Each structure stands twice: as structure tokens, then as C-alpha cells.
Amino acid sequence: MAGRRILSLWFPRLAAERVMRLRADAVPGPLAVVEDRNGAQVLASLSVEAEGAGLSLGQPLRDATAICPALLTVPADPLAEARFRLTLRRWAGRFSPWVAEEPPAGLLIDLTGAAHLHGGEEGVLAQVAEDCAGLGLTVRAAIADTPGAAWGLARYAGGGLGTVRSGDAIDQEARATRSRAVKRRGWERGGGAPRPVTARGAEAAVISPPGRLYEALSGLPLAALRLDGDVVDRLMRLGLRRVGDIMGLPRAALARRFGADTLRRLDQAMGLEPEPVSPARPPMHFAVRLTLPDPIGLRTDIEAALDRLLPPFCDKLRAKGRGARRVLFQGFRADGGVASVEVGLARAADSPDRIRPLLHLKLDQIDAGFGIDCLRLEALATEAVSAVQHRGQLEVTAQALANAGRVPAGSVQALEDLIGRLGARLGTEAVLRLHPADSHVPAKSAKLLMAAWSQPHDGPWPAPPAPRPLVMFRPEPVEAPEVRDLPARFRWRRRDFALRMAAGPERLQPEWWFEDPDWRGGTRDYWRVETEGGERLWLFYGQGGAVTDQWYCEGVFT
């Protein structure tokens, strides 16, 4: 694309400076963010003071504490860093609407046609430096024609390569060097050269003139092309250290020896292959707020304010085709405190009549204190909802005849409202429903699901191959002779029973594809038993596993 300009921002100390912003120490000391890497704790991000003490990224924690005993360490928090990066992305939207994240510590901004709004490209970099200084962040910025070139310039421009004599490069190869190769140790013996640290020092800002990518990239190290570390090591062993060293090489041979990705990265940096900037879609946010001229404290006043908040709140949901699953209602008190309640719905809803009753159940938990002067309603979780098309009388009649014997649609909605009210009282996870399971084992013929996050079973409940007890429990031992013949008398739960009649046996085999210690290596012969006292029990004789060579009771019939 002609005239395209890309701004790359790199925050080399993002994780450490995020923690320093939260701590707000008057005299900051050396700080490091530590992460687990291959079973060892290493330094993932360093503050300026920690780098000044001689520490480096990737260094083991035990070595770092030996060098700097006063080092303060904080464990890495990828979720918090992602949220902080999202905040920076929203800040970068002031320069251009096309902002993409480059984890773990970078942003990519398409400045095409937008730089003049901030005084040109120099004005953009000056504003970036000023804002980041106010935020307490170290930033390295670069503007180029392609995302790949801007990425490399932001991270490696001005870093230098240094001179590393390993004896493995062609330009360093000599007879005396080869004769002493056995004396080299570690990386000197055929490994990759140590990489210089480019994040040290003050922030940098680079602008590549339009159409001058070769001059801008030729002096950068090969890592500026976003190549894999092993590819960079192999190229450096051949004496190819800079981007300019591989620009003139035969493309077929380069791709054959080092992979097609090497050519792709080079072409992307030079603008020969398109590389779009894909901005992240802003998250959908549904919230309304009501500011009151005077504080309120009565429940009736809060209910009246809620009735004013719900219609515009549901209008926002319907405009995006979404329905709320979790709703947060907050009351901001005059003394600075916040009282809030949260409710969950069994089904995504965009109607005030379905959300209002659930919030009314919890309004007593809001402590007004000295009065509430602001109310806020927010959807914490939403789902897509489908619009219901209105049908005529003929369609409604035909659907009613087709659904004869099924649960009406109105009853389903009423059941979902009931699940929502029970969830508001007991907790969403405490309301369960049964679903049929594909298993011939009676105890596994049904599974428990959370009612708010599952759909009811469509159709009648599958009929069992034989009558099953109404109440089932784990097998309980029965005192009876340890033989397969059905006992005439037995004792269960400290009561004596006399057999009146029985039906069976029904032999069940274990599910060999599952590991179940109760069924391991054995079968069960089930009997439906009625005693002289009228009790109807479900007995079986078990073999193998945890139940072996004994009679057990597993259920009670009605």
C-alpha cells in the first residue's frame, strides 16, 4: 500500500513498571518480575534500578539475589499484564483507530493518514514520549513503511551488534582457531553467540524515511526480522549477522537451508509481502448510570430508580442482539462507599420484566448508609439472543398440534424464571437438573448439570430396560449368607427382614472402558425384593472390586 506508515511501540520494562505504578514507592529500589521457565525461576522483567545493579533478563533468580541482595521480586501475573496492555491499547487509540496488540509488551499502530493530526510523525513521537513519561513507562518507538520494519527498528535500532569471536563464523575461521577449538567452552563450542541486551538505556525514537527500508534495515541484527532463535544462530555461524547480509543471497538456497519463513519475514519487512494490522475489536460494554440530585435511602426510591435504568439498559442489549446472563447493580454512597448486588439469569434476557424480579430479591442487601447519590447497572456477561418472529393463527395452531404432549413454550420460560429466582437465593451453582446419560449401569443413567447453564432434555425420559428404584444410593452391605442364592431372611440397617416375594435376577456387567473400582472384574445379579413388612428393596450379589462375594442393597422402590 503506497504511503503506508506504521508506528511500533515497545515497552521493554512493562511488567516491572506496572508493579512499580501500583507500589508508588517514594524511593524505588531494584525490582524484578519472576516467572517459571523450564522448572527454574528466572527474571522476566527488570526495573531501571535492577538493570543498573548488573542484572539481566533470563538470569536465574538465585544468581540475581547473589548479585543484588536488596532485589525485590514479584511473581509474573499474565492476566494483570494483559489488562494493563488493554488499557495501553485504548490510550493508543488517540493516535489512530487501527491499534493492534503485540504480546507481551508491544503495540502496533497504523498511522496512515493520521499523523498530521498531531503535528506530523515527529509530533506523534513527542506526544508518545510525553504520555509515557507521565505514566511512568519506558517506551521505544519507531515509524516505518511496514509493520516488520517498525518492529525491528523499535527493538534493535541503535543497539549495536558487538564483536563476538566464537571461531564458528566464516570470516573468523583460521587454522589456529580450529586447532584450539577444543578449548572453547559452552556457547563457544558450536552454540549461538550471546545476544546483546537492547532494552538498556534511555528510550529511543526512530523514524525511517518513506521508501528507504533497505538503508533502515540493512544494519540491524537478524533478530530484527522476527526469526526463530535457532535460525538466527545458524545464520550467525555462517558469518551472516546483519539483515543486509542475507538480502543479496539467492532466495531458493536461503529458503531451502533456513526455511520458507525466513524469506517470508524478510519480504514482510521489505514490503514485498502484505502484512495487515488487525486491530482488536473493542469489547462490548453494556452499562447505564443514573446520577441523583439528592441522596436517597429508601427501598421504594431505589426501586423507582431501577425502573428508570432498566429500559435504556435493555435497549442497549437489544440494539446489539445480546441478552444479559449476569447483572451487577451498584449504589454509590455519599460517603464514598459502594454497595452492590449481583444476580445471574438461567437464560439470556433483554427484557426488564425478567431482570427486575431478580434484582428486587437482593435489594435488601444494599446498605444506603448516609444516602446513595448515584446508581449504576452493568451486564457482566452477555450472550447472543435470536429474535422471535411473530406468527399467524394457522402457524400457531399447527405448531401446537405438532408439540402435543410437550412442555409449552410459556412453561419453559416460567421454569427459567424460577431457576433464576432460586439461583438468586441459593446461588446459581446450587440449582441442578438431571439429564439422561448413555449408560446401562443404573447409577450412571443420569447426570447432574447446573440448571442455569444447560438446556432441559428434549423429549421424554428414556425408558429403562427393567424397573428401577425411586431412591438410589451407594451399595450398603446386607447381613446374609455369602452365597448366590437369594436369602429368605437378611438384616439391613439394623433391621431384620423376611422375604415375601422376589423378581430376578437381572445380571449387569461393568463398563470395561471405564476404570470403576466398585465394578472392577465382577458382575452383579440384581433382585427386586418385597419383604413381609411391605418394603420393596433392590438387592444384588456383587463379585470383584470393592464389593465382592456379599449381598448389598442399592435402592428402594416406592
Supply database-style keywords.
single chain; five-stranded mixed sheet; 16 helices; 26% strand; 558 residues; six-stranded antiparallel sheet; alpha+beta
What proportion of the residues is helical, as a percent range? 25-40%
- The low-confidence runs, each spanning 5 or more residues with pLDDT under 50, are 161-167, 173-202
Strand order of the largest sheet: 15-20-19-18-17-16
Strand content: 25-35%
Describe the protein in words.
It is built from 16 helices and 20 strands. The chain is of the alpha+beta class and 558 residues long. It has a six-stranded antiparallel β-sheet, with no helix packed on it. It has a five-stranded mixed β-sheet with strand order 5-6-1-7-8, sandwiched between helices. The longest helix has 21 residues, at 299-319. It is extended, with a radius of gyration of 35 Å. It starts with 5 loop residues before the first strand and ends with a strand.
